[in-house]
Amino acid sequence: MTLKTLAIMGCLEDYHYITGSSVGKKLGVSQQVSSRWLRELEEMELITVVTGIRKRGIIISSKGEDALRKEYMDYKNIFSKENRSIILEGGVTSGFGEGGYYIYIPEYKEQIETMLGYTPFRGTLNIRINNHYTEHYHRLLSMDGKKLSGFHKNGRTYGDVKIFEATVNEDVCAVLIPERTHHDRILEVIAPFEIRKKYNLIDGMNVKIKVFI
Amino acid sequence: MTLKTLAIMGCLEDYHYITGSSVGKKLGVSQQVSSRWLRELEEMELITVVTGIRKRGIIISSKGEDALRKEYMDYKNIFSKENRSIILEGGVTSGFGEGGYYIYIPEYKEQIETMLGYTPFRGTLNIRINNHYTEHYHRLLSMDGKKLSGFHKNGRTYGDVKIFEATVNEDVCAVLIPERTHHDRILEVIAPFEIRKKYNLIDGMNVKIKVFI
DNA sequence: ATTACTATATTTCGAGTAT
DNA sequence: TATACTCGAAATATAGTAA
Description:
The structure is a homodimer. By secondary structure, chain A is α+β, with helices and mostly antiparallel strands. Chain A has seven helices and twelve strands. Chain A has a six-stranded antiparallel barrel with strand order 4-5-11-10-9-12. In chain A, helix 2 crosses helix 3 and helix 4 crosses helix 6. The two termini of chain A are 28 Å apart. Chains A and B meet through helix 1 and helix 4 of A and helix 1, helix 4 and strand 4 of B.
């Protein structure tokens, strides 16, 4: 609520000099409370504060913008239910994304096989989402999908992972999204075949994925 | 928050039979609390509840839908206002940045004139982006803009250059960003007039640029 | 199985006030 | 003038449990 108010006041675009009591007035709380809320937003790294002599310059960080955008996407999804799929486009990229190892871990792999009804090829295709599809990507992040349940093993925690059925060039595949992703705009795609080989993909080539939601 | 969750669960379209604990689980609170919240929503006439034997059928009222839509519009305004420009601030600096020579090269100059509709002053203003605006700078780097096409000449390769329309103190100008920049945080600004002279700028003085994306 | 009351625990608020 | 601390008051959450 506070963050949204700051955004409406223009803190997404640029630094704004804002006092605790002015935000408090807008939010209907006291100066003490709104000052504390601002401090908490700063501790959560949702805003960046530049301390001046008498005023504080406040700007919403990219993490804060993500949080707002997530909220925005929730509402957008609510009011546009008709779209059953989200299309994403991006360039093939090498190396593991944050979660490229899922299909190597038996506990995940079994769940994947049960959900999708096939054994995925042992390797994921990583796609760096194009700028034009950023909004689609964020919309996808905000969707509820089927979920691979997390677990503990060898003292490590493996979190929940969302899984969406999808297609590449009409071929069935699936997209994996860790619940607590860093939003690094890398999409992990798995399929019952080796996508890279079937379409002779090399790094940088563009691929379109249609994700069913 | 509760109302939004109900909407996501589908209560906008039709009655859904929902228990306090299922909503509580989604919201991360106890059954007692979410049951109370549902009651409060009903008292506020934001939802309509049909009491059954074991479950309650819940649908969001038109008053509730209005409330959600108002929230949606807040976010929509935030992002449709914000997404059109990026503000950058930095100190005027002398010497050529990596690409300060563009407007001296006829092949680029012609394209610039066609795209902007004016003849730029023969000289660029270089701005060293302040630390506080690093994030904005990187955001700009990642944007797709209009593009000056690269070419070959005298055995040399001249790369693509992105160009963005912008303003300095409400005066029209433009920002040039080579596709393969070293990201040295120097912004190259051109305008139909001599910016330095018009604003009596000397090295180190701060300038704010509003870039349209 | 679900709702909701009661008692208790926890969190949050804001006036007063120092910095 | 603005921020932020202290502390009693008020609001809110949860466990246990009755309906």
